[in-house]
């Protein structure tokens, strides 16, 4: 089957490459000529483990191609996926659907055969209805079904998530739409991956509800971490204790500096706006968004406390290890590191930083932060070393070398990747999250 993927960003490129690996003929379409040129040269626009090899093998097989020409790209495609961005709209926080609507209008203009138009982008409830209206107003003579097929990809593990999903959600209103989507996902169906067919609006809401629930779990354990510090408990023990309950589960119960990335911040906000529009407030999610926003600055204050407090911070130096919102990605969107660094800079602290993949994107966001060539260069003469992102490279730091290079042996571990007793035995003043 020929599949067209409109949008060659994170979701579109990963999805297109995986569909091609399943044996489909896939065309990835993007208006950014430089991005398409780089893809033709084998240069990925994002960092995702294994993606470059997956793209290269499917390009070599002839199953994956790239173009800026939408009319050419969708010609003869049975499934046309819309995978463009839906950022928070400036001013009101609603999801900006202008790119989705623009693609729908262009698809309507150039459609050359019966097809399913699939919203892969994360979109609010009712977006599929509007895409359907746009297509209907074009008076196309071809049979078209509009389907919602939300993605559930974790950055850093996206290929595995796509090929071995917990579930595939397909919101379809017609038999034609269900038949085409069955064919699209037949390779996964044969692997007994669970495919859920729902109404289109249910599928749209499932994506937002799932992300809001996961954001709630993260925020809950972060608040429990604060309480653990007050009462002398260990948040890692608490996390294991509640996560062992099958009704709760252990995932997303790791205390840290707050959630960030491309999904949780904008999707929780978009869900709040949808709930507001329908006069059905989701107050738990409101609290989650508020608590998470305040937590990031609080982590900066935690670092300040470790170096003697805000009144004594001016002129001191802090090394930040990790800038991306999570490891195995170069994504800086809403990363806690941004708020931590800004809190330190506001207090007059000199900040140096190192991240294995994120520094190119971090530079324009943190112009006052010195980007070092390696972690030890960042640590040199630092009054405190702060672990913000739990990259594997930071789990095995040469602590003797760290102690030798740093001005003071202060380690602030915002991801709890070290054993407190072992680090303190090495002579460090160790600070962690939710632990004594």
UniProtKB/TrEMBL annotation:
<feature type="binding site">
    <location>
        <position position="35"/>
    </location>
    <ligand>
        <name>NAD(+)</name>
    </ligand>
</feature>
<keyword id="KW-0560">Oxidoreductase</keyword>
<dbReference type="InterPro" id="IPR017476">
    <property type="entry name" value="UDP-Glc/GDP-Man"/>
</dbReference>
<dbReference type="GO" id="GO:0003979">
    <property type="term" value="F:UDP-glucose 6-dehydrogenase activity"/>
</dbReference>
<feature type="binding site">
    <location>
        <position position="207"/>
    </location>
    <ligand>
        <name>substrate</name>
    </ligand>
</feature>
<dbReference type="InterPro" id="IPR028357">
    <property type="entry name" value="UDPglc_DH_bac"/>
</dbReference>
<dbReference type="InterPro" id="IPR014026">
    <property type="entry name" value="UDP-Glc/GDP-Man_DH_dimer"/>
</dbReference>
<feature type="binding site">
    <location>
        <position position="155"/>
    </location>
    <ligand>
        <name>NAD(+)</name>
    </ligand>
</feature>
<dbReference type="GO" id="GO:0051287">
    <property type="term" value="F:NAD binding"/>
</dbReference>
<feature type="binding site">
    <location>
        <position position="122"/>
    </location>
    <ligand>
        <name>NAD(+)</name>
    </ligand>
</feature>
<dbReference type="GO" id="GO:0000271">
    <property type="term" value="P:polysaccharide biosynthetic process"/>
</dbReference>
<feature type="binding site">
    <location>
        <position position="260"/>
    </location>
    <ligand>
        <name>substrate</name>
    </ligand>
</feature>
<dbReference type="InterPro" id="IPR008927">
    <property type="entry name" value="6-PGluconate_DH-like_C_sf"/>
</dbReference>
<protein>
    <recommendedName>
        <fullName>UDP-glucose 6-dehydrogenase</fullName>
        <ecNumber>1.1.1.22</ecNumber>
    </recommendedName>
</protein>
<feature type="binding site">
    <location>
        <position position="86"/>
    </location>
    <ligand>
        <name>NAD(+)</name>
    </ligand>
</feature>
<feature type="active site" description="Nucleophile">
    <location>
        <position position="263"/>
    </location>
</feature>
<comment type="pathway">
    <text>Nucleotide-sugar biosynthesis; UDP-alpha-D-glucuronate biosynthesis; UDP-alpha-D-glucuronate from UDP-alpha-D-glucose: step 1/1.</text>
</comment>
<dbReference type="Pfam" id="PF03721">
    <property type="entry name" value="UDPG_MGDP_dh_N"/>
</dbReference>
<comment type="similarity">
    <text>Belongs to the UDP-glucose/GDP-mannose dehydrogenase family.</text>
</comment>
<dbReference type="InterPro" id="IPR036291">
    <property type="entry name" value="NAD(P)-bd_dom_sf"/>
</dbReference>
<feature type="binding site">
    <location>
        <position position="266"/>
    </location>
    <ligand>
        <name>NAD(+)</name>
    </ligand>
</feature>
<dbReference type="Pfam" id="PF00984">
    <property type="entry name" value="UDPG_MGDP_dh"/>
</dbReference>
<dbReference type="InterPro" id="IPR001732">
    <property type="entry name" value="UDP-Glc/GDP-Man_DH_N"/>
</dbReference>
<feature type="binding site">
    <location>
        <begin position="252"/>
        <end position="256"/>
    </location>
    <ligand>
        <name>substrate</name>
    </ligand>
</feature>
<dbReference type="InterPro" id="IPR036220">
    <property type="entry name" value="UDP-Glc/GDP-Man_DH_C_sf"/>
</dbReference>
<feature type="binding site">
    <location>
        <position position="333"/>
    </location>
    <ligand>
        <name>NAD(+)</name>
    </ligand>
</feature>
<dbReference type="GO" id="GO:0006065">
    <property type="term" value="P:UDP-glucuronate biosynthetic process"/>
</dbReference>
<feature type="binding site">
    <location>
        <position position="326"/>
    </location>
    <ligand>
        <name>substrate</name>
    </ligand>
</feature>
<feature type="domain" description="UDP-glucose/GDP-mannose dehydrogenase C-terminal">
    <location>
        <begin position="319"/>
        <end position="420"/>
    </location>
</feature>
<keyword id="KW-0520">NAD</keyword>
<dbReference type="InterPro" id="IPR014027">
    <property type="entry name" value="UDP-Glc/GDP-Man_DH_C"/>
</dbReference>
<feature type="binding site">
    <location>
        <begin position="152"/>
        <end position="155"/>
    </location>
    <ligand>
        <name>substrate</name>
    </ligand>
</feature>
<dbReference type="Pfam" id="PF03720">
    <property type="entry name" value="UDPG_MGDP_dh_C"/>
</dbReference>
<feature type="binding site">
    <location>
        <position position="30"/>
    </location>
    <ligand>
        <name>NAD(+)</name>
    </ligand>
</feature>
